[in-house]
Amino acid sequence: MEYEPVIGLEVHAQLLTKSKIFCNCSTLFGGEPNTLTCPVCTGSPGSLPVLNKKVLEFTLRAALATHCRIAPYSQFARKNYFYPDLPKGYQISQYELPLATDGYVEIHLNGHKKRIGILRIHMEEDAGKLLHDLSSERGSHSYVDFNRTGVPLIEIVSAPEIGSPEEASAYLRKLRAILMFLDICDGNMEEGSFRCDANISLRPKGHQGFGVKTELKNMNSFRNVQRALDFEIRRQTGLLDQGEEIIQETRLWDAAKGITSSMRGKEEAHDYRYFPDPDLVPMVVDPKWVEEIRASLPELPDVKKERFIRQYGIPEYDAEVLTTSKALANYYEDSLRYYNKPKVVSNWIMSELLRELKRDEREIEDCPVSARSLGEMLKMIDDGIISGKIAKSVFEEMYQSGKRAEEIVQEKGWVQVKDSAEIENIIEQVLSAHPQEVQAYRKGKEKLFGFFVGQVMKATQGKANPQLVNDLLKKKL
């Protein structure tokens, strides 16, 4: 039987506030363990939480940017469970009355557009962190760091409308881009400020309803989300083909082995014994404030993409790539200030620059080639100082050293050869060395022209002016 996957994603995004959701403690990442805590975030008796208004504002920005309906009345709830890194024995979250519902994110994949529904967006606090030491001479130990306890999160729950691992990856990339364009989340998956759990089930292709789902955890990159879902589809398909049942459970993704393994049986929502938090009053958001926030939203990825197409005349694909992050879009527009040829700049960014960044696993914010340096180098091509071929070598040197193009060209002696006499002399040498090819060309084998150009460029180490080489070669042949 042929099956189709049904995938829903739960994203937790850490908000870029300076203080925690219910107290004044810092949200700084990487502090000494248990130094960024207070009686409120550690749940000491008698302490009372107070909602950070900036958390509410950031959540509203996310909800409006994803076309959600803002609830006129919402409420915090206690999610009760017991774990060493949860000092209160419960997590403050939202359950029956979330802040936002019924939104969507539009993805573009393989030339097609699709809307993925968002069921809800709600606020909650993060738990602490367990550190496991398995190498101690006294045996293994676990330590608890409460610094992260109380850090503000939003949980964004998609509808079960994602039909493939590729769609899941596209949805996550788009959602992350939106949050980063809003400046409410840094999107750092390695530090856990943007993390995802996936629910996946299989059903016979074309059927309605849902199969038994499994939840996947421990996926810290877009690639690992896609790999984990691919594996789980194969695993569940194998079980169903053998007549076995799928068990509802939580499974962990092992990136090194490329497999998922059972973690625990899946709890149902009622196991958490949700009830309204008695220490926090219900929220009624002023509609005027919502409209003020809506009016202050920045240019979001889809809007920016359409502007790039319209203003700069670049293809939709280019605009889609260049607006995958706010920093990349800014880098592109900054480059145009120094070299105003939009398609040329987009080609260099998408080919040379992004290739180098991907190889080094670096973000555009860490790029050693500034937008100004890229623009100056491209102008050197137009001015005839370097050839397009040499420019690629210049760019590699710029990326490795951080030096500007002009400095590198002078150091390496890569200034373009534009002396007609010098190029004619090299052409004579090339043609003399290949008499048979010359004879074949003159008898009509015109494809050999590219061979001659290549030999001349090789002899000049790529420094000859390509147009001059072409003109002089045609004349000589």
Quick recap of the structure?
The chain has 477 residues and is of the alpha+beta class.
Write a concise keyword list for the protein shown above.
Arc Repressor Mutant, subunit A; 3 domains; 9-stranded mixed β-sheet; elongated
Description of the molecule:
The structure is a single chain. The protein has 3 domains: 3-292, no CATH class; 299-412, no CATH class; 420-476, Arc Repressor Mutant, subunit A, CATH 1.10.10. Helix 9 (371-382) runs antiparallel to helix 10 and helix 12 (420-433) packs across helix 15 (466-476). The longest helix is centred in the middle third of the chain and has 20 residues, at 222-241. The chain is an alpha+beta fold. It contains 15 helices and 14 strands.
User: Sheet bearing the most strands, described?
Assistant: 9 strands, mixed
Number of E-state strands:
14
Q: Domains counted in the coordinates: how many?
A: 3
Q: Point out poorly predicted stretches.
A: none
Distance between the termini: 66 Å
Q: Please identify the structural class as seen in this structure.
A: alpha+beta
Q: What's the order of the H and E elements?
A: EHEEEEEEEEHEEHEEEHHHHHHHHHHHH
Share in β-strands: 15-25%
Q: What Rg, in angstroms, do the CA atoms define?
A: 29 Å
Q: What's the overall average pLDDT, rounded?
A: 91
Helical segment tally? 15
State the strand order across the main sheet.
Answer: 2-5-6-9-1-10-11-12-13
User: What general outline do the C-alpha atoms trace?
Assistant: elongated
